[in-house]
From TrEMBL:
GO terms for molecular function: DNA binding; DNA-binding transcription factor activity. Coiled coil: none annotated. Residues 2-71 form the HTH merR-type domain. SMART domains: HTH_MERR. PANTHER family: HEAVY METAL-DEPENDENT TRANSCRIPTIONAL REGULATOR HI_0293-RELATED, REDOX-CYCLING DRUG-SENSING TRANSCRIPTIONAL ACTIVATOR SOXR. This is Transcriptional regulator, MerR family. It holds the Pfam family MerR_1. Keywords: DNA-binding, Transcription, Transcription regulation. InterPro entries: DNA-bd_dom_put_sf, MerR-type_HTH_dom, MerR_fam.
Length: 255
């Protein structure tokens, strides 16, 4: 079956201009044209375009998508899937780092907003006024919870999905978790979260316990369960349904 560009674009879920753009940059070969000069796409073209759209929607750069398309056309599915997994892992690491940076920025902005609210009602600005000195300073005796999700506030009996870790420590904490999660030998779904299994060693067991305790202190909506058996350490991470994206971003997902 063949499709004109408007029908093909609708079936793939992108504007017709996107298909023309893909053609212009060489991401796809120019489609066959009918006797009337109109572009025509067949089912194989649509399957390829859906693959392109799916990988692009994962945030994979178009230059990398182009390499995947080359593999898609000549390799078996397992080989293509392996390449996609590698690119997704890279995007996940980048996204987790960005989450840490955004949480840190949110904490800084909340601190700035609180200090600016203390500005005097009258008088000119000067060197010592909050407008000029609102940059956040370390506050050892109090913490600010930064919401990690959007949407309405939870009911009074539900945990708040927020983090109180000071802004400067967030990127390092994210990096610590990334390094630990990368050492997992098994990932499994559990109710409300994920379970990570590691090959046991005294140092690893101590690191799991240290990170879990530190994380639960600043993100009280998490529940961590550590099980130690011969040769293995198992960490279960659970959270309310509203925090599912946070769990996936920090700890990954089970295959």
């Amino acid at each position: 079956m063949t499709y004109r560009i408007a029908a093909a674009a609708e079936l793939v879920g992108v504007p017709a201009t996107t298909l023309r753009y893909y053609e212009d940059i060489g991401l796809i070969e120019p489609p066959t044209r009918g006797g009337n000069g109109y572009r025509t796409y067949d089912d194989a073209d649509l399957a390829r375009l859906r693959f392109i759209t799916a990988t692009k929607n994962l945030g994979i750069p178009l230059a990398d998508v182009a390499e995947l398309v080359k593999a898609y056309d000549v390799e078996d599915c397992s080989t293509v899937a392996h390449q996609v997994v590698e690119m997704v892992a890279q995007r996940l690491a980048e996204t987790q780092t960005l989450i840490g940076e955004l949480v840190a920025l949110a904490a800084q902005l909340q601190t700035v907003a609180a200090r600016l609210a203390e500005a005097p009602a009258a008088g000119p600005c000067g060197d010592g006024c909050p407008c000029a000195t609102a940059a956040p300073a370390p506050l050892a005796d109090r913490r600010t919870f930064v919401p990690l999700t959007r949407g309405p506030a939870p009911a009074s009996d539900e945990p708040v999905i927020a983090c109180s870790l000071d802004a400067g420590s967030v990127p390092d904490r994210i990096s610590d978790w990334q390094a630990l999660v990368a050492r997992a030998t098994l990932r499994e779904h559990v109710a409300g979260g994920i379970a990570l299994t590691f090959s046991a060693s005294p140092a690893l067991a101590a690191e799991v316990a240290r990170l879990a305790a530190a994380e639960q202190d600043c993100c009280t909506f998490f529940t961590f369960t550590i099980q130690m058996t011969t040769g293995q350490v198992r960490l279960e991470v659970q959270a309310p349904p509203g925090a599912a994206d946070v769990v996936a971003a920090m700890f990954g997902i089970a295959p």
